[in-house]
Write a structure and sequence with these properties.
This protein is an alpha+beta fold. The chain folds into 3 domains: 267 residues, Alpha-Beta Plaits (2-Layer Sandwich); 123 residues, OB fold (Dihydrolipoamide Acetyltransferase, E2P) (Beta Barrel), CATH 2.40.50.1010; 34 residues. Helix content is 18%, strand content 27%. The chain contains 8 helices and 25 strands. Strands 1, 2, 3, 4, 5, 6, 7, 8, 11, 12 and 25 form an 11-stranded mixed beta sheet that branches. α1 runs antiparallel to α2. It is elongated, with a radius of gyration of 27 Å.
């Protein structure tokens, strides 16, 4: 078995940022796996050192042509031979991308410091639907070298992976399968995942759904990933990975810095002009009227923007689906409740208007509706009985009287606070409950064995 590792490279080496995206399809391959192979080869050949952890940038999850988590991969390396590194990256993309099944890969290269405009591009790609032409324009304006196959749609992610600036960030360690096992059933032990989850939380997150008693670390598709563990600390993640019973030998692993678990795709407040199909963000305002519960138990409601004059703009229609666990919360809302809803805008279709598919709901304030009721006796604390139309009310126990009905608050079963789906229904980018209010700054010094590639003895 051979393990590879590497940290910063000193001297007068060139800083080279590499962005890669859309090398995979629903039928196989994985962009993180290609990034793993490239990183391992650069270290083993001595062609580069690393200036940071490899980057896994999750982009807008509402892009209609995304595959799985819509993740682009970035590497920031220090090298004396940028040309050789570029050739190696392009060669891997040529050989390993699943183009025959619809992948449209792209690679982008930036030498030196990353221009600030590319950071803005990366932020926009987190919540908007950006055209390839805009990515190409940004690349050409800042002198990025690019390589594309198919229709080159992956250029948006490749440029974003270079430019995106982490604020709060997390880490994920991904373990990869041997090639001969791609597409076969995984046998990761759920019990080992549960025990790992109990030992390492809150430094790891979304590894196990306690409510549904389900391990969440393994994908279901034919890609090379065996399992992935997300968390805050590299040493904890490495130990957590080693404690999982994988059920098969690993081909290797690599640790990524990521925006997973940050909720950053929902940081943008959607206004009237940008609440367009496939956009992600939040709407804040008041519930316009009683929610409607439709077939399947899904709840629908409308939010009028906070601060907007009545009738100045249409409310945003929102949906809370039963599978998300949010439908009960939505159904309990009432007109006048102050809320914040975050999610993606689904385009209109036949019989279905445009809606925001809620990923979280936050009840900011509750309306206090009232209803008329018989008055209570001040002595006996019991409801009085009506004496007939226009004759007032009388306590049947002590004889006390009152002249009219009273207004009383309608009890609310809903409470102020944040409502989230269970862990198994949360997206990669969703900020879980344990990360609310958390800001994690990931440092890199190469001291943790963040990458390993293994060779299994043949027995010869």
């Amino acid at each position: 078995m051979r393990a590879a590792g590497g940290g910063k490279n000193g001297g007068g080496a060139t800083l080279l940022s590499i962005g890669i995206d859309d090398t995979d399809s629903a039928e196989g391959m994985c962009t993180t796996y290609l990034g793993f192979m490239l990183a391992a080869e650069l270290l083993e050949k001595g062609e580069a050192g690393f200036a940071s952890y490899p980057r896994l940038v999750r982009l807008n999850p509402n892009v209609p042509w995304r595959t799985r988590g819509n993740g682009a991969v970035g590497l920031r390396v220090l090298t004396d031979d940028p040309g050789a590194v570029k050739e190696r990256a392009i060669g891997l993309v040529r050989r390993c991308s699943d183009v025959k099944n619809g992948a449209n890969p792209a690679v982008a290269f930036c030498e030196g410091e990353v221009p600030a405009e590319l950071a803005a591009f990366g932020r926009a790609a987190l919540w908007r639907l950006l055209p390839r032409a805009r990515a190409l324009e940004a690349a050409e304006r800042h002198g990025l070298e690019t390589f594309r196959m198919g229709n080159g749609r992956g250029l948006v992610g490749a440029v974003s992976a270079i430019g995106y600036e982490f604020g709060d960030s997390t880490l994920e360690i991904l373990a990869y399968r041997e090639r001969g096992r791609f597409g076969t059933a995984r046998a990761v032990s759920p019990e080992s995942v549960r025990l790992m989850h109990e030992r390492t939380r809150p430094r790891t997150f979304n590894s196990y759904d306690e409510e549904k008693r389900r391990a969440l670390v393994s994908p279901r598709g034919p890609d090379p990933v065996l399992y992935g563990i997300r968390g805050e600390d590299p040493a904890v993640l490495l130990a957590a990975s080693r404690s999982v019973d994988a059920g098969e030998p690993l081909a290797g692993y690599m640790m990524f810095q990521s925006n997973q678990g940050t909720g950053d795709h929902l940081a943008h407040e959607l206004g009237e002009r940008d609440a367009v199909p496939h956009a992600s963000g939040t709407v804040t305002g008041t519930v316009s009227g009683p929610p409607r519960v439709g077939p399947g138990g899904h709840a629908y409601f409308e939010v009028a923007a906070a601060g907007a004059p009545a009738g100045s703009r249409p409310p945003v229609r929102c949906a809370a689906y039963k599978e998300s666990g949010l439908a009960g919360c939505a159904a309990a809302m009432r007109g006048g409740d102050a809320v914040r809803a975050g999610g993606g805008i689904r385009r209109a279709a036949a019989g279905h208007p445009r809606v925001l598919n809620a990923e979280f709901l936050e009840i900011l304030d509750l309306a206090r509706p009232t209803r008329e009721a018989n008055p209570a006796c001040g002595r006996c604390a019991k409801r009085m009985k009506s004496k007939g139309a226009g004759q007032g009310f009388k306590c049947i126990k002590c004889g006390s009287r009152a002249g009219s009905k009273v207004a009383e608050a309608v009890p609310r079963r809903l409470r102020r606070g944040l409502y989230l789906p269970p862990a198994s229904a949360q997206r990669h980018l969703a900020r879980p409950l344990q990360r609310q209010g958390v800001t994690n700054a990931v440092g890199f010094d190469g001291s943790v064995a963040w990458i390993g590639r293994f060779e299994v003895d043949s027995g010869e």
